[in-house]
User: Which sequence fits this backbone?
């Protein structure tokens, strides 16, 4: 989502955007069912069909399809001061769908500044909002917090503050997400390692014993190591998980929040020990990056959802439609929420391709 500012910065390196883009070809692989499925997926990918941008000036989007048939959506608002929930029967309807501000920042103290990256999750019959917040007297002293709601519709009922989600040590932390696999729930989040440079962030995983707490020590999964992860800032942040084809795919975002922002990916077998960093393989190149051809810049901080029938996996992310942002990119409000279908390679791994060009709805 964000990172602390540096002072007395050295001259910035020339930005070589990671725009090495694969060309999509729907080729006939064989007569097997797998090939047919891949061809279908490739066709869906080529015809994403979303009215992008779905929601303007909404960064760090989180969208999920619930059992009631609604898509629920939340994201960072440009004022960094509140949490807004939306719902609609389709992703294209999110921008004009039912919406409600469910929580506002405090006047002072914890949770009084930099309200970032909310995520809505339904766990054991209750709704939980995981989000990041700072303090008005220390804006970048940010931590993870949780809200809880027992109502069937999270736009209704009472949201109760459940306090800070403790990770085992106190440092700059943000971007919590959660997923369950084989009966075990996990927390993934971004945090500055205890002994790291103050400008570095990494992604961690831990088991959860309740929706409000982790059990046992955290495992560091990824920290910046490649040049494309270190443009202006050394950043790995904003994890998101997609479980498919017997594997766990974890995307994350890297570098500054301008056009250099891009998605990386780690992969593990679904039956592996996810708390063992050796179970994960890191892609050396970004899997989703800026595209001058389609006019999309800084795509990242994504979530995953599906089509209503569950057959098509969908990437929901933010990006800008301008390459150059004057001043501090974190203060620019024009990161817009977009979506596109995910393609699948013959080896069962996701093919995100390049960010599709905007296709605004007809007026």
Assistant:
């Amino acid at each position: 989502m964000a990172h602390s500012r540096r002072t007395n910065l050295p001259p910035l390196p020339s930005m070589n955007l990671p725009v090495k883009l694969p060309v999509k070809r729907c080729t006939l692989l064989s007569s097997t069912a797998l090939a047919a499925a891949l061809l279908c997926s490739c066709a869906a990918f080529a015809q994403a069909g979303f009215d992008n941008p779905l929601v303007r000036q909404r960064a760090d989007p989180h969208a999920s399809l619930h059992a009631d048939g609604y898509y629920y959506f939340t994201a960072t608002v440009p004022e960094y001061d509140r949490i807004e929930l939306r719902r609609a029967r389709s992703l294209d309807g999110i921008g004009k769908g039912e919406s409600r501000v469910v929580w506002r920042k405090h006047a002072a103290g914890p949770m009084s500044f930099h309200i970032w990256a909310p995520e809505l999750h339904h766990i054991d019959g209750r709704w939980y909002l995981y989000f990041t917040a700072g303090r008005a007297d220390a804006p970048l002293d940010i931590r993870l917090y949780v809200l809880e709601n027992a109502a069937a519709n999270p736009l209704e009922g009472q949201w109760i503050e459940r306090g800070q989600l403790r990770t085992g040590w106190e440092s700059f932390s943000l971007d919590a997400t959660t997923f369950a696999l084989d009966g075990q729930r996990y927390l993934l989040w971004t945090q500055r390692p205890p002994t790291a440079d103050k400008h570095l962030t990494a992604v961690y995983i831990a088991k959860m014993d309740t929706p409000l707490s982790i059990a046992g020590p955290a495992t560091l999964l990824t920290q910046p190591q490649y040049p494309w992860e270190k443009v202006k800032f050394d950043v790995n942040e904003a994890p998101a998980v997609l479980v498919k084809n017997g594997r766990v795919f974890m995307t994350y975002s890297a570098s500054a929040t301008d056009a250099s922002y891009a998605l990386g990916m780690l992969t593990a077998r679904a039956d592996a020990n996810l708390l063992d960093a050796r179970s994960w393989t890191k892609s050396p190149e970004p899997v989703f990056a800026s595209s001058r051809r389609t006019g999309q810049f800084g795509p990242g901080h994504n979530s995953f959802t599906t089509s209503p029938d569950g057959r098509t996996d969908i990437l929901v992310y933010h990006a800008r439609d301008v390459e150059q942002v004057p001043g501090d990119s974190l203060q620019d409000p024009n990161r817009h929420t977009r979506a596109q279908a995910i393609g699948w390679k013959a080896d069962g791994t996701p093919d995100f391709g390049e960010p599709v060009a905007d296709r605004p709805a007809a007026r």
